[in-house]
Design brief:
With 346 residues, the chain is mainly α. It has helices at 20-40, 48-56, 63-96, 108-123, 128-150, 159-181, 185-191, 204-231, 235-240, 245-267, 273-285, 289-314, 322-339. Its main location: membrane.
């Protein structure tokens, strides 16, 4: 580990959780069930033979086979987006030492949305790469702004101050998004579903564009995991263990912004996935970031895919956008977590 820039000497390495293998097997089974459910459930249920035809017989051009192929790209995209948001939430919580940090709660998603909507209205952007570049810029600037506001005053960046700063910033940026869209009907028509978060329009081109950002974000998150364990003990202890805390926060924050910004650009501001995924894994497995980050990716993929399927079933013959479903589930959980004394710090 000495080759990594965030370390100066031997790192801090907790033991492997005893239940890791069991949790991994259960998550893998749930992931398989989610994939199957996403392929066969919806306003038009798919039979097993229709599923096989759509997956393994490309020459068949029936309606059912085309529905299956469309759902394959949608399922892959929802898995990738859920994994990205799960890791982003875990990294944000670790960097800020705030157990209720999440891209949506801290306003990062809204900042990305503002830049994308502004790009459409004023710069006539139309490609996925342009969406992602603007979303990353908006997410990064918003993250710096919220953390700066939350760090002011006595006590520094406490969980409560960060949440309040994020909520205020998100409200202000949402107003700007609305102000840009209302007089421009073409912008509103183009992104009225995107605003609440959706994976329904996913295609393989979007997945190909999104994949490099996902890989880079995951790699940056993985190389930060061991040092983040030390950071949880406090900056002074982490420095004593050889962690370069400034470089660590920069790398981890960059990974979080890459993941949530790219996701927001293509799927819209889907909220609460990072919060739910990370809290579930921390509750089951403990605080070890070496396992929290990969397991948050898996649980985030599961939660988002389940939410997408539930939106299809609840809204049949249409569908509820996945952002509505995750907000309905996540908002009460956020209230419960915010009321606990344990949210003061990690």
């Amino acid at each position: 580990m000495n080759s990594l820039p965030i370390f100066k000497k031997k790192d801090f390495s907790p033991h492997v959780p005893k239940n890791f293998v069991v949790v991994l097997v259960i998550c893998f089974i749930m992931l398989v069930l989610c994939v199957v459910g996403s392929l066969v459930l919806g306003s038009r249920p798919i039979r097993l033979d229709e599923l096989m035809n759509g997956l393994f017989h490309p020459s068949i051009d029936s309606y059912e086979a085309n529905v299956v192929r469309k759902r394959v790209s949608r399922t892959v995209f929802s898995l990738f987006c859920g994994a990205a948001l799960g890791i982003s939430g875990a990294l944000m919580q670790a960097v800020t030492r705030n157990p209720i940090a999440d891209p949506s709660i801290l306003g990062v998603n809204t900042g990305a949305s503002l830049f994308v909507v502004g790009g459409i209205a004023f710069l006539n952007i139309s490609t996925a790469n342009q969406y992602i570049l603007l979303a990353l810029a908006g997410a990064m600037l918003t993250a710096v702004f919220v953390f700066g506001i939350g760090s002011m005053g006595r006590g520094g960046a406490t969980p409560l101050k960060l949440v309040l700063a994020g909520a205020a910033t998100s409200a202000a940026l949402s107003s700007l998004v609305t102000a840009i869209m209302i007089p421009r009907s073409y912008v509103m028509d183009q992104f009225r579903f995107w605003q609440v978060g959706s994976v329904s329009s996913a295609n393989w081109s979007d997945i190909t564009t999104f994949l490099p950002f996902l890989i880079i974000g995951i790699l940056l998150g993985i190389i930060s995991t061991t040092a983040l364990n030390a950071l949880a003990l406090g900056d002074e202890v982490a420095t004593g263990l050889g962690v370069r805390t400034g470089m660590l926060r920069l790398i981890a924050a960059l990974a979080a912004v890459l993941l949530c910004g790219a996701t927001t650009a293509l799927a819209g501001p889907i909220g609460f996935i990072g919060l739910l995924a990370t809290h579930v894994m921390r509750l089951i497995m403990g605080p070890d970031m070496r396992f929290i980050i990969p397991m948050s990716a898996i649980s985030g993929a599961i939660i988002l895919t389940i939410s997408d399927v539930c939106g299809r079933l609840l809204g049949s013959p249409g569908e509820l956008e996945v952002g509505v479903v995750t907000a309905f589930i996540g908002a009460p959980i956020l209230i419960i977590l915010a009321r606990k004394a344990k949210v003061r710090s990690l």
